[in-house]
Amino acid sequence: MKASDVRAKTDDELKQQVEDLSKEAFNLRFQRASGQLENTARVRQVRRDIARIKTILGERARAGKSGAGKSGAGKSGAAKPQRAAS
Q: How far, in Å, CA of 28 to CA of 16, rounded?
């Protein structure tokens, strides 16, 4: 799966696909443990697809958060509590 294919999908579709791939990864781990796994490269491919989708979902979340949260109440505006002098 290419990143351009992932970017063309909606967030809901991507979340569903991550869920499906996670189930497939679970099944592949069991097949590997029992010695029934024939396509060993599929484990790596599924892991990378999950990571690719999660990365793009994270990018979208950060892009949406940075555009909406410009009210000035970010991390830099919070004051740290000071220690009492001894």
A: 18
Residues 32-50: pLDDT tens digits? 999 999 999 999 999 999 9
Q: Which CATH number fits domain 3-67: 3.90.1150.10, 3.40.220.10, 3.40.190.10, 1.10.287.310?
A: 1.10.287.310
Q: Are 42 and 27 in contact (CB under 8 A)?
A: no
Q: Cα separation of 61 and 11, whole Å? A: 10
DSSP conformation class of 84? P
Under 8 Å between Cβ of 37 and 28: yes
* Confidence tier at 65 by pLDDT (50, 70, 90): confident
Q: CA–CA separation, 81 vs 22, rounded Å?
A: 43
